[in-house]
Design brief:
Number of helices: 10
Low-confidence stretches: none
Order of helices and strands: HEHHEHEHEHHEHEHHE
Distance between the termini: 55 Å
Helix content: 40-55%
Largest sheet: 7 strands, mixed
Mean pLDDT: 87
Strand content: 5-15%
Structural class: alpha/beta
Oligomer: single chain
Shape: globular
Strand order of the largest sheet: 3-2-1-4-5-7-6
């Protein structure tokens, strides 16, 4: 292999990366002027799994207002208070407007553990209290004409496999669906005011190919879109959102881990933030409620 070939390889890789990120940005619908809640289980989930999503949703030109709700403070190793602050710093690194846009719970109902299954109704209850506050209804208002209301437009969380099959992640998916189903109970004929978008879980081999997984994700999304086009018309909206970070955004996501979540930077996480696909590529599927 000659000198020029060696020199050309990183240039070709960088060009392909930038092209893929731009193609994803221009060929997939974007969220604008929305109130968005990211629901996570542990501090560092937002950086390790959702950084491409957050960086895209919190771009200044998007007009979105994003908040993070974390159901545990990750106190498995007795570092709960430290990790709460790390999450706030990470959120600010990724573009949150304010420290107040992060809420971390420290509840016995949500213990950080691989062998603990969180109760779905507890997750749903927290969500209902968070974005569907109960308000007194005027006595003369007909109940049948009540449209479902919420204080957010979009809810983002893990899918039913939890990306890593962590039971806490999986509980968030089921709790989110349960909460929105409760919101829509008795509201036939109305569209749910909250769109639920979940992060797609993929096979192990795809998790460590970084941005190279983006073309595969695009192709699978295109084929899936062909099958779902009719259903999409009925549902009145996009079914897939794709976010691919460019090089500078990827580095920003890494900084959210290395500079904010310092207590979690064990040797294997360096491999994740370097080669991990979720540090570069996020595809979200809209769940139908």
């Amino acid at each position: 292999m000659d000198y020029y070939t060696i020199l050309a390889i990183p240039i070709l890789i960088s060009t392909l990366w930038l092209f893929t990120a731009n193609l994803a940005r221009t060929s997939h619908p974007q969220f604008t002027n929305k109130s968005i809640l990211l629901l996570i289980a542990h501090p560092d989930d937002e950086a390790m799994f959702f950084s491409p999503t957050l960086l895209a949703l919190m771009a200044p030109q998007s007009g979105n207002h994003v908040k993070i709700l974390c159901l545990s403070n990750g106190n498995a190793d007795g570092l709960g208070k430290i990790r709460e602050e790390e999450l706030v710093v990470s959120g600010e690194t990724l573009g949150l407007r304010s420290r107040d846009d992060v809420l971390v719970l420290d509840s016995p109902d949500f213990v950080d553990a691989m062998d603990t299954v969180w109760q779905v109704d507890k997750v749903a209850e927290v969500l209902s209290q968070a974005f569907t506050p109960k308000r007194p209804k005027p006595k003369d208002q007909p109940t049948g004409d009540d449209a479902p209301k919420a204080t957010i437009d979009v809810l983002v969380t893990f899918d039913r496999f939890g990306v890593s099959r962590h039971p806490n992640h999986i509980a968030l998916y089921h709790g989110a669906r349960s909460s929105l189903n409760g919101l829509m109970k008795g509201k036939q004929g109305w569209r749910c005011p909250v769109e639920l978008h979940t992060l797609t879980s993929i096979s192990v081999w795809r998790k460590y190919v970084s941005f190279l997984d983006a073309p595969m994700t695009m192709a699978l999304g295109f084929l899936s879109g062909l099958k779902e086009s009719r259903q999409q018309e009925k549902d009145g909206g996009r079914r897939q959102a794709l976010f691919v970070s460019d090089v500078s955004q990827w580095r920003q996501g890494q900084k959210a881990m290395t500079r904010a979540h310092r207590s979690q930077m064990r040797w294997f996480r360096w491999g994740w933030i370097t080669f991990g696909r979720y540090m570069v590529v996020n595809d979200l599927k809209r769940e139908i409620i």
